[in-house]
Design goal:
The chain is 32% helix and 32% strand. By secondary structure, it is an alpha+beta fold. The chain has two domains: 62 residues, no CATH class; 95 residues, Jelly Rolls.
């Protein structure tokens, strides 16, 4: 008969804890299954059944947040600057070489904006900017009458005005234009 020798090893505390849990789960598997079923049942009654109320609360919170964002975007820094000229107001000037800038209020409603201009005999250039983007231009110096147009979408949180920059390469120039309200 062969003799068996046991070596007494010193293991860490966690080794004995894990081995003890393994032996407990092996001997009392029915108790582990019962605890699992009870936890699933409690989850169903306390969490899953409350889902509808939680959904209603979150929909209300989301709606309130969207309303706050919409209201704040309507009162943003999109207010017109000082010395703004209302649409459907004729603007004219005569003067020397250089550029002249005017700001026009274009309102709260979307539509196409027409700019009818008369540069007379001296050539001038007109550039129209909305939200710091060039939206219409004569592209070069022109004389006499003409029309520019661009579409204004009137989006919340965007400016309600546009800027018109007139460039005069020669002295003694004169021009006149009428920016219509959106149609």
């Amino acid at each position: 008969m062969k003799r068996v020798t046991y070596v007494n090893r010193k293991e860490k505390w966690w080794f004995h804890a894990a081995r003890g849990m393994n032996l407990f789960a092996h001997r009392f598997w029915w108790l582990v299954l019962l605890v699992f079923v009870v936890l699933i049942t409690l989850f169903y009654f306390f969490c899953w059944q409350q889902k509808d109320k939680l959904c209603e609360d979150s929909k209300y919170a989301l709606g309130a947040t969207n309303n706050a964002i919409e209201n704040s975007s309507n009162c943003c820094s999109c207010a017109p600057p000082e010395d703004v000229i209302p649409c459907n107001t004729s603007t004219s000037e005569s003067g020397g070489q250089g550029y002249h800038e005017n700001t026009h209020w274009i309102g709260n409603y979307p539509g196409t904006i027409f700019i009818n201009f008369d540069m007379y005999n001296q050539k001038d250039k007109m550039d129209v900017y909305y939200d710091n983007q060039l939206v219409a231009s004569t592209n070069e110096v022109v004389s006499n009458k003409g029309t520019l147009e661009f579409y204004y979408s009137a989006q919340p949180g965007k400016p309600k005005y546009c800027r018109i920059i007139m460039t005069a390469p020669e002295s003694g120039t004169a021009w006149e234009y009428l920016l219509s309200c959106p149609e």
